[in-house]
Design goal:
Blueprint: H1 2-41, H2 43-47, H3 53-73, H4 80-116, H5 123-132, H6 138-192, H7 199-231, E1 239-242, H8 243-253, H9 255-260, E2 264-267, E3 276-279, H10 281-298, E4 304-311, E5 316-323, H11 330-333, H12 345-351, H13 357-367, E6 372-377, E7 381-390
Parallel strand pairs: 2-4
Antiparallel strand pairs: 1-3, 3-7, 4-5, 5-7, 6-7
Helix pairs in contact: 1-3, 3-4, 6-7, 7-13, 8-10, 10-13
């Protein structure tokens, strides 16, 4: 009876333990297969452009640990062994991959920043970047590189424009110097060849040579003035004055030149009311003189030059010098204030001048912190306008 009872008891225990073991094994396989399935489905995530080292390490460790756990099942170990293998392999693989990737990416990012940055970090800054400050993400690095690429592209374009401007400047300067130099040289050689013995001819040639030298002096003075304006060496002496009175003074000085071509000088109707401005009076007078002289040089005979003064708001005054001359083609307007730039070289060579007048005007106005613009149309005329600070009445 006791033996039978023991057998029954053993059978009873066996009958209760096997279902539990079977259930554990099925649960174990389910967990491992689910883990492996998740790893397979995570491959698109790994290939994603927006993945991070942590996510990449997680899915890589998950796939490797699931594979190792499945292989351990083939050895029919106790039910808990594959789960231990799964956990240990996952933890080991995750941390190895994670820190290896971080180190690799950090080294690559460091090389990138060495290439795109010109400043060198100190040892203290390097320690802060590595150990205290949060590391930049791949997206942040990508934005930094894109920003650097845009800046370099803009810098290259700026250098190309500067190089083109330098070439044109040297070419134009050589042209402006060549004409008076050759003129003076021709007259002097002619005098040396015998013309000096004829008083009337020699005096005429000397006068012409003096004009050529005067043009060279004027060119040197204009270049020096532009250089001083660009470098900020010329002080701007502000004072309050009525802009219409200054324009009338300029008209009085240039009246003889205007009469030679029968050109009328006047203020625009409706703008005669005195307006006080706050600026350097002598330099603004030079601006108005240059603009009116240009209008007289390039305008038509029996034409008109008018100047208007307008209150834009409580802070600014707009002054505009207009003529009804031949006008300027649209393709030349954007470059009209460049040094030595000439819209019509054949006509400019007959009129003369250094080709620096409008460049000086632009620099004087910009030295006041103001702006200048031009409006023109062929066969209609041109208008040059600039702003000034409103003065106190």
């Amino acid at each position: 009876m006791r033996a039978v009872s023991k057998n029954k008891k053993h059978k009873y225990k066996a009958g209760n333990t096997l279902p539990i073991i079977y259930y554990d094994l099925c649960l174990q396989k389910t967990v491992i297969f689910h883990f492996f399935n998740q790893s397979i489905h995570s491959l698109p995530v790994i290939a994603s452009k927006n993945t991070s080292p942590a996510r990449l390490s997680f899915f890589t460790a998950a796939g490797l640990s699931a594979l190792m756990a499945l292989l351990s099942l083939l050895l029919s170990p106790p039910w808990y062994i594959p789960l231990i293998v799964l956990g240990l392999v996952f933890l080991a693989a995750y941390f190895i991959y994670y820190y290896t990737l971080k180190y690799f990416i950090y080294r690559k990012i460091k090389l990138i920043y060495k290439f795109i940055y010109q400043t060198k970090a100190t040892k203290r800054e390097t320690f802060f970047y590595q150990n205290i400050l949060p590391q930049k993400s791949i997206d942040e690095v990508s934005r930094d590189v894109e920003r650097w690429a845009i800046e370099k592209k803009d810098e290259i374009e700026s250098l190309r424009r500067s190089e083109q401007f330098r070439k044109e400047f040297l070419m134009n300067l050589a042209h402006e110097l060549r004409t008076p130099i050759f003129t003076v040289q021709g007259y002097i050689h002619t005098l040396l060849d015998g013309a000096i013995d004829h008083p009337e001819i020699s005096k005429k040639f000397l006068n012409n040579a003096a004009k050529g030298i005067q043009r060279l002096v004027q060119l040197a003075d204009d270049l020096d003035q532009i250089s001083q304006l660009e470098s900020g060496q010329v002080p701007i002496i502000y004072e309050n004055f009525i802009i219409q009175d200054l324009i009338k003074d300029v008209y009085e000085e240039l009246m003889l030149k205007a009469r030679k071509r029968n050109i009328s000088l006047q203020l625009k109707k409706g703008t005669e009311t005195p307006i006080m401005v706050y600026a350097d009076k002598q330099k603004i007078k030079q601006v108005v003189v240059n603009l009116v002289e240009n209008a007289l040089k390039y305008g038509n005979d029996n034409g008109l030059v008018s100047t208007g003064c307008y209150r834009m708001d409580e802070q600014l005054v707009y002054v505009e010098v207009s003529d009804n001359g031949p006008g300027i083609a649209e393709e030349h307007l954007s470059r009209i204030f460049e040094r030595f730039y000439r819209a019509d070289r054949s006509r400019n060579s007959q009129i003369g001048g250094t080709g620096l007048g409008l460049a000086i005007v632009k620099h004087i106005i910009e030295a006041h912190g103001q702006t200048i613009n031009v409006r023109s149309k062929p066969d209609v005329g041109s208008s040059f306008g600039f702003t000034l600070e409103k003065g106190k009445d």
